[in-house]
Amino acid sequence: MNNKAVFAKGDPGPKEFFSNTAWVNMLHTDEDQAFDTQVYNVTFEPSARTYWHSHPGGQILLCTEGRGCYQEKGHPARQLGKGDVVAIPPNVNHWHGAAPDSEFVHIGMSTQVHLGPAEWFGPVTDEEYNGATADRSIINNRL
């Protein structure tokens, strides 16, 4: 990863929500509830990922660096790279994180935060992760 990052890495992500090491930099917490949105920069080390989770108000990911993966429960994984946008509907159980051989950075936006915080469902197993990232030709061809 280059050291020209737009935002600082932030603090280590909580171990009860991430496998391996990820850093979270809260950019906008919306404490005054003026926008009904939280905005955060997340940096994943290679193979790091969120646990399975959902957002009652939905989530948007803006991928800014590296290569990663997004998967909804019961659906094939989607490979991600710089410039990709993922709009996740409310209450969709999913995970996202880095490819096995690349850091991955995204800006996340939790929308309609008045509906409540993310709900967490436990870790993405190594078997689930390896299955989602098994097609190295797709991952390795991302910019």
How many helices in DSSP terms?
Answer: 2
- Globally, the shape reads globular
Flag low-confidence runs: 137-143
Class in CATH? Mainly Beta
Please identify the structural class as seen in this structure.
mainly beta
**What proportion of the residues form beta strands (DSSP E)?**
35-45%
Name the CATH superfamily classification: Jelly Rolls
Pfam family, one: Cupin_2
Protein name: Cupin domain-containing protein
Organism: Tichowtungia aerotolerans
Characterise this structure.
The chain has 143 residues and is mainly beta. The chain has a single domain (18-137), classed as Jelly Rolls, CATH 2.60.120.10. Helices cover 8% and strands 44% of the residues. It has helices at residues 126-132, 136-140; strands at residues 11-12, 18-19, 22-28, 37-44, 49-50, 52-54, 59-72, 78-81, 85-88, 94-98, 104-111, 119-122. Strands 1, 3, 4, 7, 8, 9, 10 and 11 form an 8-stranded antiparallel sheet that branches. A two-stranded antiparallel sheet has the order 2-5. A hairpin with a 5-residue loop joins strand 7 (59-72) and strand 8. It starts with 10 loop residues before the first strand and ends with a helix.
